[in-house]
Amino acid sequence: MMSASQSQPTDAGGWQRGGAQAVRRRLVERSVSLLCAMATAVVLFLLFSILWTLVTRGAGGLSLPTFLHSTAAPGTGGGLANAIIGSCEQTGLAALIGTPVGMMAGIYLSEFSQDGRIVSLVRFVSDMLLSVPSILVGLFIYLIIVEPAGHFSGMAGTLALAVLFIPIVVRTTEDMLRLVPRAMREAAYALGAPGWRVILNVCLRSARGGIMTGILLALARISGETAPLLFTSLGNLNWSTNLNAPMASLPVTIYQYAGSAYDDWVQMAWTGALLITVAVLATNILARWWLTRNGSAQQ
Amino acid sequence: MMELPSTITARDGVAMDTNARGRFGDLVFGMLARLAGWFILLVMVGIVIVLVRGGWQAFSAFGPGFITSTAWNPISNHFGAATSIFGTLVTTLIALVFAVPLAFGVAFWLVEMASPALARFIETAVQLLAAVPSIIFGMWGFFIVVPFMAHYIEPVVTHYLGHVPGIGQLFRGAPYGTGLLSGGLILAIMITPFICSVMTDVFVSIPAVLKESAFGLGATRWEVMRQVVLPWSRQAVMGGIMLGTGRALGETMAVTFVIGNSNRMGWSLFAPGNTIASLIALEFPESSAGSLKLSALLALGAILMIISFITLACSRIFLQRGTSS
C-alpha cells in the first residue's frame, strides 16, 4: 500500500518528470561548460594583460644606454647595466653551487633507498624547502652570513638563491632517475660496472635531458626572486662585480624604482620588468621544448 | 642506448681492476651523495633554529601576548603579531575563494572539453603564468589592478553590497584600490596555475574505466566529474589546494605592492592592511641589528614558518595518499 501510493505520482508523470530532469541535466551541463570556458578565458586574459602591460610600458626604455650605463640619479639618464650583470652573476653562481649539490641529493634519494627512513625524511624536507617562503630564506642567510660579516654582499645573495635552487634540482633529478628502466641498470651491473659508474655513465646520461630541463626551470625561478635578495645583496647603485660587496640585481632595482616618484625611474622599472619576464619565460619555453624533444627521442 | 655498455667495458678494462677501483669509487660516491642529502636536512634545521633564536628576544619580552597584540610601535618598542597574522590569513582566504573555482574550471575544461592542440596551448599558458616572477605581479597589480579596483570595482561593490546586513561591513570604506581585497586577488592569480596543474595531473591520472562506465550509464561530463572524478581524487585535490595555500601565505613582493601596508585590523576588505611577509620586507631595512624590532620581525618570520610548514606538511600527506590510492 505504502509503496503503491509512493510510486503512483512518479508513474503518472513519469515521462514528464524525466523530460524535465533531462532538460535540467542538459542545462547544468551547458552552464558548467560555459563557466569552465570562461574560467580558462579569464586566466588567458590575465596572462595577456600582464604581457601586454609589460611590452607597452617597458619597450620605451629599450635602448643601448639601458644596457651600457649603470643606474643613476633620476633625470640623469642611467641604465640597468649593473643590475643586469649583478643578476647574471648571482644567478649563475647560485646555479653553479646548486647544481652539483642538488643532483647528488637527487641521486641519494633515488639510488640509496637502502638508507631507509632517512631517505624519506630528506625527500620530505626537500619538498618542504621547495615551497618555503623565499623571504624566510633571505632572513636565514642574513642571520648566518650578513650579520656576522657586518655587511651585505653578493655572495650572501648567491647563497640565498642557491638554497632556493637546490630543491628544484633535487626533485627533477630524482624523478628523472626513477624513469630510467631497470633493465638498463642491470645490463650495466652485469658487465661488471661499479655502482657509481652505473649511476653516472648510464642513469644520469639517459636522464640528462630531463635534469637539464629542471636546471633551466630552477634558473628561471631564481632569476626573478626579489625577497631573498633584499636582505642579502641589498643592491648597489654603481657597477660592481665584487662578491664581497653589496650587489645590484634586476628584481631589487625594479622594486626600488617602481615605488619611486620619478617618471624615468618608473620607466626603467618597466623596462627591467620586461627584460626579466622575457628572459624567464623564454627559459621556460626552451626548457619545455627541450623536454618534449628529448622525451620523443627516447621513445 | 646501445653504445653505453660497450663504453663501460672499454673504459673499465679488466674485471679484477674494476672491483678494487669500483669499491673505492662507490665509497666516495656514496659519501658525497649522503653529504648532499644531509646538507638539505642541515639547511632546514638551520632555518628553523636561526629564526627561532633570532626571534627569541621578542618572544621572551612579550610572552604569548605577542601573538594576540595588535601593536606595532617602533617608538615605544611595542610589537605584536596579531594584525599581520590576520592580514596573512584573510588575504590567503580571499585568494583561495577566487583561485579554487578558477583553477577547477580551467582544469576541468583542459581535461574534458578542450581539443588536444588547444589544451597544449592553454597548458603552456598556465605554466607561463606560474613562471612570471612575483615582482612582476606586484608592479602589474600596483599600476593596473589597483586603479581598476579603485575606480570600477570597489565603488560598485560598496553601492550594492555595502548596506546588506551582516556582510555589508566587509565592503565599506574608502575605495583606495589598495587593501586586503586587492592583495587577495593578486594572490589568487598567482596561485591559480599551481592548483590548476595539480588538478589537471590528478584528473588525467584517474583510471579511464571508471569514467567510461559512468559515461556508459548516460552521465553527463559534469555528473562524471562530480560523482566519479572528484570523489576519487578528493585527497590529491586537497593537496593541490594546500600547496597553493602555502604559496599564498609566504608571498612577499606582489602583496607588498598592493596591500597598502598599514598596521590596521578591521572588518573592511577595502582597508589597507599588511601581511607577515610584507611587514618583514618593509620594516627590515629600517631595523638595526640586535634591536627588539629586528627580533620581533624574526619572530614573525618564525610564526610564518610554522604556519606554512603545517600547510605544506598537510599538502604532502594529502598528495601522497591521494596519488597512492
TrEMBL record, chain A:
Quick one: signal sequence residues?
A: none
Extract the GO molecular function terms from the UniProt entry: phosphate transmembrane transporter activity
Domain spans labelled ABC transmembrane type-1 = 84-287
Write down the Gene3D superfamilies for this protein, in alphabetical order: MetI-like
Going by the entry's taxonomy, the superkingdom of the source organism is recorded as Bacteria
Q: Which GO terms describe its biological process?
A: phosphate ion transmembrane transport
| One Pfam family here | BPD_transp_1
Is Methyltransferase among this UniProt entry's keywords? no
InterPro entries xref list:
MetI-like, MetI-like_sf, Phosphate_PstA, Phosphate_transprt_permease
| Keyword line | Cell membrane, Membrane, Phosphate transport, Transmembrane, Transmembrane helix, Transport
Does Membrane count among this protein's keywords?
A: yes
Where does it sit, as one GO cellular component term? plasma membrane
Ranges in a coiled coil: none
User: Which spans are transmembrane here?
Assistant: 34-55, 92-109, 121-145, 151-170, 269-291
According to its UniProt record, where is this protein located?
A: Cell inner membrane; Cell membrane
Give the way it sits in the membrane: Multi-pass membrane protein
Assigned protein family: Belongs to the binding-protein-dependent transport system permease family. CysTW subfamily.
Name of the protein in question: Phosphate transport system permease protein PstA
- What gene is this protein a product of? pstA
UniProtKB/TrEMBL annotation, chain B:
Residue ranges of the TM segments: 31-52, 85-111, 131-153, 173-196, 265-284, 296-319
Question: Membrane topology for this entry?
Answer: Multi-pass membrane protein
The reply to whether Transport figures as a keyword in the UniProt entry is yes
What name does UniProt use for this protein? Phosphate transport system permease protein
Organism lineage: Bacteria, Pseudomonadati, Pseudomonadota, Alphaproteobacteria, Acetobacterales
Q: Name one Pfam family in it.
A: BPD_transp_1
Q: Which domain of life is it from?
A: Bacteria
- What are the entry keywords? Cell inner membrane, Cell membrane, Membrane, Phosphate transport, Transmembrane, Transmembrane helix, Transport
**UniProt similarity note:** Belongs to the binding-protein-dependent transport system permease family. CysTW subfamily.
Q: Which GO terms describe its biological process?
A: phosphate ion transport
Query: Where does this chain mainly localize?
Result: membrane
The molecular function terms of the Gene Ontology recorded here are: phosphate transmembrane transporter activity
Location of the protein in the cell: Cell inner membrane; Cell membrane
What PANTHER family would the database entry show? PHOSPHATE TRANSPORT SYSTEM PERMEASE PROTEIN PST, PHOSPHATE TRANSPORT SYSTEM PERMEASE PROTEIN PSTC
Which InterPro entries does UniProt cross-reference here? MetI-like, MetI-like_sf, Phosphate_PstC, Phosphate_Transport_Permease
Q: Which CDD domains does the record match to this protein? A: TM_PBP2
Give a yes or no for keyword Transmembrane in this entry: yes
Domain ABC transmembrane type-1: where? 85-315
